[in-house]
Protein: Alkaline phosphatase
Amino acid sequence: MQGAWVLLLLLGLGLRLSLGVIPVEEEDPAFWNRQAAQALDAAKKLQPIQTAAKNLIIFLGDGMGVSTVTATRILKGQMSGKPGPETPLVMDQFPYLALSKTYNVDKHVPDSAGTATAYLCGVKGNMKTIGVSAAARYNQCNTTRGNEVTSVMNRAKKAGKSVGIVTTTRVQHASPAGTYAHTVNRNWYSDADLSADAKTQGCQDIATQLINNMDIDVRQGGQGAGLGRGGGTHTHHSPRQPTALEPARVSVILGGGRKYMWGWKSVGIVTTTRVQHASPAGTYAHTVNRNWYSDADLSADAKTQGCQDIATQLINNMDIDVILGGGRKYMFPEGTPDPEYPQDDSRNGVRKDKRNLVQEWQAKHQGAQYVWNRTALMQASNDSSVTHLMGLFEPADMKYEVQRDFTKDPSLAEMTEAALRLLSRNPRGFYLFVEGGRIDHGHHENVAYRALTEAIEFDNAIDKTSQLTSENDTLTLVTADHSHVFTYGGYPLRGSSVVGLADGKASDGKSYTSVLYGNGPGYQLSGGARPDVDKSESRDPTYRQQAAVPLSSETHGGEDVAVFARGPQAHLVHGVQEQSFVAHVMAFAACIEPYTDCSLPTPASPTAAVQTPASPTAAAHPGPAVCPPSLALLGGALLLLPALH
Structure:
């Protein structure tokens, strides 16, 4: 229903703006001179905040390259009835900006696992490995031990802060797993994913690491820890010695990935992927295979060598206060019916070790609460007796924003607010990882509308955080792990739909869209030729944009990505930097290891992190647009209704 509604809005927008109407005031040079003078005046008044940061927040737009940021800005503006490019995103308004070089140690074009290790732990690693240095080898469990590196979130926890992860993927996915896991295979989500060798060698799946590696205060998502100056310098042959950079525990976990699972400063992770996914896993996991989501994913060798799946690391590697996202199936024993889809065997728990990781996690904390739907999340976030929160809202990744059930599934902004409510209770501050993880998935499918609407909701979550925190004591960074082979061109008229047709025809006499992909499943031929595309087809929210090279899944791009910064020490974000620099800025700003001697003054007037927020129980917004559509926009849509029958 929502997809059809948004389609009407876009069609109405096309009727209203397709003629390329330019605002009259923009024809006057004085308009641009005034605008530039105002921007220059603001720049001259900009003063770095030289105090330490009480709170640390990193927003990770998975796959959100610069071309995605641009197209998102235009679409968000058009959804509010404007031509598009002149309307700033919330992240655009951050005062400091840098470019980040995203390559992995072994690959020019990276994946989300190796990059998570860089921006979350401060050390670059190899592709498909999480929370380990480049001395560890993909899928070789026995190279894990001695090569673990520690995330900033882990260090924040040890410094007395609460921590959390929030994601729209599974919470065991590559990005959130970077906060807590150490694995040589990013796909070891549960023990069912471990190879025989990995089990023999004692490797742990990512879900197990989630509940064991550190104490996370908040966990939301589909599952997720650490950093070090000179980290990862030990060889894998050397015995692992306890150091100041050893893993802690996680308090908040929100996201998808529930099937993989059946303090001090507060820490949290929020993601729309599974919380065991590569990006969130970078906050807590150490693995040489990003796909070891559960023990079912481990190879025989990995199990023999004692490697852990990512879901296990999520609950073991550190005490995470909040965990929110997806990834239920990796947490529960094989065959455990899913509470939301009890008749669908494909969504059952997958753990072969018969462990219920959610129960194990709850047993660690007297005030721990597990939820799996929006209503329960809202209730728990307002319950003062809840000290640790895990919300897993899908068996694997959470639904795309355009497909979300607003009564059952929380939005990324809602999960982020819930995490902030719990984490901000800690007077010593917090660390929060928030991931818009399905931007990446939309691009891999060559469905640009899905990617861009995910990015709009990601910006909405940043907006919510800006309302609830103060830049005087909270360092907020917004960045991406990598880009995509996604382009925006074709000389479209100003105000024309960003997902519509380019102005003019291609050399083959056929139309083409303004947004295209270099490769992916959008490649197609009809009778040996490229198929034509019309206006209505291009604006269908499920339309797969054309690609130049046939692949089952579109690839990442290798160009630099942006880093937006606001708050204490944000001025350090400048120029062109290695991606690992991001983690070091955060550690220095908070005066945590290895920068405990930073000598930064505390904020002069520290404020509570959450400032009288609007109730998260308020009705969900009807779609990804921030502002309601104008009457003209609705009128345009209604005029086109007959054509839709």
Remarks:
- Residues 190 and 294 are 1 Å apart (CA to CA).
- The first helix runs from residue 2 to 17.
- Residues 54-70+106-484+555-603 form a domain with the Alkaline Phosphatase, subunit A fold (CATH 3.40.720.10).
